[in-house]
Amino acid sequence: MMNLQIPDAGVVEQHVHLGGAVPIHRLYEAAVDRGIRLPVQSYDEFASLLHRRRDNSGTLERYLEIYEVAERIQSGPQAVRESVLIALNGAARTGGSLAVDLEGEATTPLRQQLPIRALELRFNPMKRNGNGIWDLDRVMLAACSAVNEIRTAYKGKLKAGLMVCLGRDLPFEENLILAKKVSLWAEEGLPVVGLDLAGPESSNSLEDSARLEEMAELYRRAGPKVGRTVHCGETRAIQLETFLKTVQTLEPERIGHPLTAVRAYCEDGDARGLKLMAERGITAELCMLSNLLTGAVQSIESYRTILNAFDQFGIRYTFSTDAPSLQKSTLAGEIGSLLQSKAVRPDQVEQSFETAAQTTFLHRLVH
Ligand SMILES: [Zn+2]
Fold first, then answer.
1. Ligand 1 centre from 294 Cα, in Å?
2. Mind listing the pLDDT tens digit for each residue in 136-195?
């Protein structure tokens, strides 16, 4: 791929959501198969509704809007197992190619691919239990079973682990159940390697210190066996002060889209966010296309400034797709676009591969 030095062991992708990692036609077929009511009448409408583009996204709230449809279709143990299998197979099969066709199949010759050999897949089991119809433990066990089946099927050539996302849009009580379960599942040796907080930042920015303290309680409850990341600072709903307090209180090892810290530095010359990340050795999980779709970043060229700011402070970063199937993108394709627009240098990409291998939560897998 474009004269890049690709690690022999392949590439680790750290930030992929299950809701965004099952091709749209597979979601549709599953909905038809299970008789799930859909908000549209035809496949074309469905495909257009779920495909994340600039014209139907533009903000994080709008970008996330249709996740509810994917989550409904992916609900229940059987559907979750199937979805995890599809997502992991998909990453191995197409994740490294430069482009996918409309059905989500790879269109790049094999030799040009960027081999993905390890994937951290994240999802919120509480949004897959049909409002309590299904047992949360069974939903998670089904996801874990799919991860273990893939490990066996690929003879260890594809590593995978699951991360549980708490929801900014969920009530404390539901997140509490999730956090306790995460601790339990990890203790039981299931392939649950990380904890995350996802959902619209505006619905619970954690600006309120009582809400932040609640969240800290949840991160503690999840226990020491799982890695900690948090979606924080993608949008302007998170002010720098809130970003700082969130990092100090939740103590994440990695942060998804910590753009608040970069904005504060580039727009106001306030380096506290970047300094804090550097001091704590926190890795930035970056998802270029999804940031463009949500309007978190205005242009691909802006990424040059973002990456240079991280480099200047010695903050490490990794690249991921966030939602490959709904964006119809691939990791190689997104990195290729960044390289082509000179927003990133090859040595920065190579460094990001190394960082991803070093900072992956998959080291926490119990074999
Ligand atoms: Zn994300």
1. 11
2. 999 999 999 999 999 999 998 899 999 999 999 999 999 999 999 999 999 999 999 999
What total of structural domains would you count in the chain? 1
Residue 52 lies in a domain: yes
Give me ligand 1 centre to Cα 160, in Å.
17
Environment of ion ligand 1 (residues, CB < 5 A): 322
First to last CA, the chain: 32
Contact between 159 and 117 under an 8 Å Cβ cutoff? The reply is yes
Which candidate, 249, 181, 178, 252, places its Cα nearest to that of 211? 249
Instruction: Output the CA 7–ligand 1 centroid distance in Å.
Output: 25
In a domain, 5, yes or no: no
Domain containing residue 356: 15-362
pLDDT digit string, tens, across residues 75-132: 999 999 999 999 999 988 876 677 777 666 776 655 557 889 999 999 999 999 999 9
Give 165's strand partners: 196
87, 16 Cβ separation under 8 angstroms: yes
Kindly indicate the confidence band of residue 5, based on its pLDDT and cuts at 50, 70 and 90: confident
Helices (H), 294-364: 302-313, 324-327, 331-340, 346-359
Using the mean position of ligand 1's atoms as its centre, give its distance from the Cα of residue 196 in Å.
9
Give the three-state DSSP class for 361.
Answer: helix
pTM (2 d.p.): 0.95
Report d(CA 2, CA 332) in Å as an integer.
10
Indicate the angle between helix axes 240-250 and 209-221, nearest 10 degrees: 30
**In CATH, what number is assigned to the domain containing residue 293?**
3.20.20.140
Ligand 1 centroid vs 15 CA: distance in angstroms?
A: 6
Let me know how many helices (H) and strands (E) the chain has, helices first: 16, 8
Residue 2 lies in a domain: no
In a domain, 278, yes or no: yes
